[in-house]
Fold:
Amino acid sequence: MKIIDILKQDTLSMSFEVFPPKTDSAFDSVKAATEEIAQLKPAFMSVTYGAGGGTSAYTLEIARNIKERYGVETLAHLTCVSSTRETVRQRIAEIKAAGLENVMALRGDLTAEMEGKDRSGWAYRYAVDLIAELADEGFCIGGGCYPEVHPESANQKEDIRHLKEKVDAGCQFLTTQMFFDNNLLYNFLYKIREAGITVPVVAGIMPITNANQVARAIQLSGSHMPQRFKSLVDKFGSDPAAMKQAGIAYATDQIIDLFANNVTNIHVYTMNKPDVARQIQQNLSDILGK
Structure:
């Protein structure tokens, strides 16, 4: 089933993101965690893709297992940064061979070695280049977006212009980077709709369950941390159990507010933690009808 058909349904939905192992030795434990999350029967699950394609085989194996064994639709991430066209064509063929219909097309993070280097000769400089490559392959194509502006964009107007280029190239839905202030998303949605971007937008929510995640979240996304969230971390950050409970409660509250304001599709960045995914789903059981 194509994810765009799930997103267009007139119901509230929640999906989960998981990531593949980095090594063979971690495969069994990661697979078990993703299976626990799949048993929660989310609307769909996305499986990320390591920098430079280093976990591509694991990505496909995890995604295929979730779909075939648990009947949960999956979204396989595919990045293109510094890749050749031959490499990307091979990975597209592997995705098809795995029976997957949905692809999250991303440029991918630049490594330290790539920063500042000339990229003019790259086959894929931006995600839009990969989306254009995928457009005729029959996939349902998803893309990423930043409610708080992509860190490499000069301003939000430029960022939204590039976002529309991705949609015009064949991107059928968008999933946001994590954010912790819902008002930022509401403002972003108003602006992209004004710019003519009408595809579904899935709100990405990251439950912060330990204080060490905060700095990492800021580094990855540049996310604004509202005072309410800072106070939560200051109060409970030194108590792991309390911080976990408070972080789940904060994420739950965000999701309830989003649902109440007609943002109907939520994607939870689970960090491969089945207990966190389960608790959030239980907190919303009557709202989601689960």
Summary: DSSP finds twelve helices and eight strands in the chain.
